[in-house]
Amino acid sequence: MNAIMVIGGDHLGNIREKLEGLGYQDVMHIKGRKESEVKFKIPKKVKMLLIFTDYVNHNLAKKMKAKAKERDLPIVFTRRSWSDIHSSLNELKIS
After folding, report:
1. Where in the chain are the domains?
2. Which residues contact 29 (CB under 8 A, 6 or more apart)?
């Protein structure tokens, strides 16, 4: 299963559908506002993290980066605009 975890922002809006259109069958989202969300474990089915830099603080981004590194997961830092998200995901596929 191709699952992605999105971190940041209160609502995904149409981003969920656009990610599904790119082949991500399971789009999970956490707002990242509560301390309990910061302490969670990334589900095993998650294959990539997508972090909205304009909606999370530096400390949360740092913790998520460390968790992704432990599992050798790709991580994308981007703003919460579809053009930035799409561009960042395309750069990751090229690299």
Report:
1. 3-94
2. 5, 6, 7, 9, 12, 16
User: Exposed, middle or buried: residue 3 (CB in 10 Å: 0-12, 13-18, 19+)?
Assistant: middle
- Options 2.160.20, 3.40.50, 2.60.40, 3.10.20; which CATH number does 3-94 get? 3.40.50
Over the stretch 12-46, which tens digit does the pLDDT of each residue have?
999 999 999 999 999 999 887 776 666 778 889 99
Which pLDDT value is given to residue 62?
Answer: 86
Look up the pTM and report it. Answer: 0.87
